[in-house]
Amino acid sequence: MIYSILLAIAGLASQVSAACSRATLREVAAAYVEAQVGGKLTLLSLASNTSYAENDKPMDITKGVLSQPIAIDFNRSIYDTTQCATFTELTSATSKHPYVIYTRMLLTEDASQITKIESVVTDSGDWAFNATGHLYWTRQEKWDPIPESQLG
C-alpha cells in the first residue's frame, strides 16, 4: 500500500515539474505568430530534433507554410501549462493567398525549445473553405477567462 502511495506521489511530482509558465507559453506563441508573419523560422527557438507536420504529413519545416510570410488578420492562442504546449489559431483573409491555420506546439519541460509543431493548414480549394467568413465568425467569439467559482 505504501509503495502505491509513493508511486502516485512521484507521478504527481513529475507532472508538476513538467509545468511551464503561462507567460513563457504566451511568449512562444507570440514568437510563432511573428515568425509566420515574416516567414522567419529564425524567430523560433527550435530543438535540434524538432518535428514538423502539416495536415498530418511530416515535412521539412523550411518548405512548409511557416517559412512563407503571411498577413495575419486574426490570431488567438491557448496555453497548456501542464503539457508545456500551445495551440494557435491564425486567420489570413485579406492577403493574396488566404489561409486558416491551426497550430499545436510542444516544448521542452523548461519551455526553452520547441520540440514539435503540428499545423492544420487550409486554403482555397479545400472543402467549404472561406477565410473571410471564418474571420467574421471568429471575431464574434468571446474567450474570456472562466471565473474560478464556475470551475468544476
Write the layout of secondary structure elements.
Blueprint: H1 2-17, H2 22-38, E1 46-54, E2 57-58, E3 74-80, E4 85-92, E5 99-107, E6 114-123, H3 131-140
Parallel strand pairs: 1-6
Antiparallel strand pairs: 1-2, 3-4, 4-5, 5-6
Précis, in short:
The protein is of the alpha+beta class and about 150 residues long. It contains 3 helices and 6 strands. The protein has helices at about 1-15, 20-40, 130-140; strands at about 45-55, 55-60, 75-80, 85-90, 100-105, 115-125.
Overall 3D shape: globular
Mean pLDDT: 88
Category by helix and strand content: alpha+beta
The CATH topology corresponds to: Nuclear Transport Factor 2, Chain: A
Structure description:
By secondary structure, this protein is α+β, with helices and mostly antiparallel strands. 28% of the residues lie in helices and 30% in strands. It has a single domain (19-143), classed as Nuclear Transport Factor 2, Chain: A (Roll), CATH 3.10.450.50. The chain is built from three helices and six strands; from the N terminus they run H-H-E-E-E-E-E-E-H. It has a six-stranded mixed beta sheet with strand order 2-1-6-5-4-3, with helices on both faces. The radius of gyration is 18 Å and the shape is globular. The protein starts with a helix and ends in a 12-residue tail after the last helix.
